[in-house]
Amino acid sequence: MKPLFSFFFAICLMFGIAMPALAADPDPNPDLLKVALLPDENASELIKRNQPLKEYLESTLGKEIELIVTTDYSSMIEAMRFGRIDLAYFGPLSYVMARSKSEIEPFAAMIVDGKPTYRSIIIANVDSGVESYADIEGMKMAYGDRASTSSHLIPKTVLLESAGLEAGEDYEAHFVGSHDAVAVNVANGNADAGGLSEVIFEHVMDRGLIDRNQVRVLGHSGEYPQYPWAMRSNLDPELKQQIQDAFISIDDEEILDNLKAEGFAVITDADYDVIREMGSLLNLDFGKM
To answer: Which residues form the signal peptide (predicted)?
Structure first.
């Protein structure tokens, strides 16, 4: 033992102090897989809605599954960084951020309308006077989480590229936490406009969370790679393959409907270079967000 550590060890023994546990590497083949869902909607609703996915993975992988919804995107990124979760459903931006801080790899992205891509939309309150992107100048714009792609990075880029509007200078940017919160705040008039995922916006309206007559869609973004599922890179190779195969093979309509997907396609890290390029346009430092 080194002298300093020996002294500390002796003091611990003398006074009955427990030695601090040394951090262990995460188990490459755990009996329990902790699966984090993207915290873009109400947590209890997400857990309840994805019980069929939990049961499917337990049956297919032969392991116990624990579904987790963290308080926000940042806490999910940190949980993955420190090995407290094994799989996670990320947004493209939160994936890129997590990848910059930890050893993870994407393995599947959902297919919607026959393709593994999606769009963001920008909406406005009908009474706000906002009828175009340019009208957002001087207004209040609602975004979801800072680490969200479709309710932050993409709509912010759209406003910059399409109307030359920069957050904090040309309009007020407010972060309200989730996509459904963006829709609700815009519909209630707490924000003049907002950005969110087109799929989640439709889901919010279908659930009756907002009065569809109180919002108008100003426009859509281009197509971007879908939200990736990612896993710890230090999982056992055989287990990683089993996990990927399990997702690609999902054909249960209830599971897919709950995930708002038609199926899953194989995805790679290179597919998210477009997200890194958008971050560079906005001068984002993914490692410090």
So the answer is: 1-23
